[in-house]
Amino acid sequence: MNLTCHLRLIAVLCAIICSSCMAPSYSAANRSGRLNPTADKGVVLIYWRKALFNDASNGMEFKIYVNDHLLTQNMRQGRFFSWLAEPGEYSVATRARVTPGAVIGAFYSNSLSALVTGAPTKALFTSRRSHNVLTVAAGQTHYVEMAWPWLAKEQILTEVNAVDGRQRIQSCRWLNRGR
C-alpha cells in the first residue's frame, strides 16, 4: 500500500468512528422526548441489534420500505430508525444488496475490507423483500425488530411488545437523528 491508500483508509476510519460517536443512543434520544408519539400519530422504531461476534451488515446495503416507498437505504446493525406515522396499516419490507466486498467483509469482520481489497461492487444477489403488516395506533410507540438469517437470504421484521422492544433497543444508535 502506498501513502495515499494509507491516508485514505485513515480518513475513512476517522469518519466512521466520529459518525458512530455522534449518533445518540436510544436512551439519550428517548430521554430527550424526541421519540415520543403525539396524540394524533404513533411512533415506529425499527431497530437491528448488534450481533455478538460479527456485524452481518458489513459492506451490504440494507433498505427498508413502507408501502413500497423507501424509508431508509442504510440500515445497519446496532442502529434504529424512527418514524412518526399516521394511524393505520402499513406494509413494512426490507431488501438487501450483497456484493463481493460484503462477503469479504463478513470473513474479516471489517466493513472497510472492500475498500482495502478493492473488491468489485457488482451485486452477487439482491434478496427478495420480506413483508410485514404493521398497524400503527395514535399515541403509541411500536417496536419492530430486524434480523437477517444468512441462509434464507431474507430479512425478517417482527413487531415486539413495548417491554421487550425497550430492552432490546437500548444498545442501538439513532440512524435518522434530527429528522
Polypeptide structure, described:
The chain is of the alpha+beta class. It has a single domain (24-174), classed as Sandwich (Immunoglobulin-like). 26% of the residues lie in helices and 32% in strands. Strands 9-8-1-4-10 form a five-stranded mixed β-sheet. Strands 2, 3, 5, 6 and 7 form a five-stranded antiparallel β-sheet that branches. The longest helix has 20 residues, at 3-22. The chain is globular and about 60 Å long. The protein starts with a helix and ends in a 5-residue tail after the last strand. The model is unreliable at 105-125 (pLDDT under 50).
Count the helices. How many? 5
As residue ranges, the low-confidence spans are 105-125
Question: What percent of the residues sit in helical stretches (DSSP H or I)?
Answer: 25-40%
Rg, alpha carbons:
17 Å
Instruction: State the shape.
Output: globular
Mean pLDDT: 74
SSE string, helices as H and strands as E: HHEEEEEHHEEEEHE
Strand content: 25-35%
DSSP strand count:
10
Q: Ends: how far apart?
A: 40 Å
The SS-based structural class is alpha+beta
CATH topology: Immunoglobulin-like
CATH C-level class: Mainly Beta
What count of domains describes the coordinates?
1
At CATH level 2, the architecture is Sandwich
Q: Main beta sheet, described? A: 5 strands, mixed
Q: Strands of the biggest beta sheet: in what spatial order?
A: 9-8-1-4-10
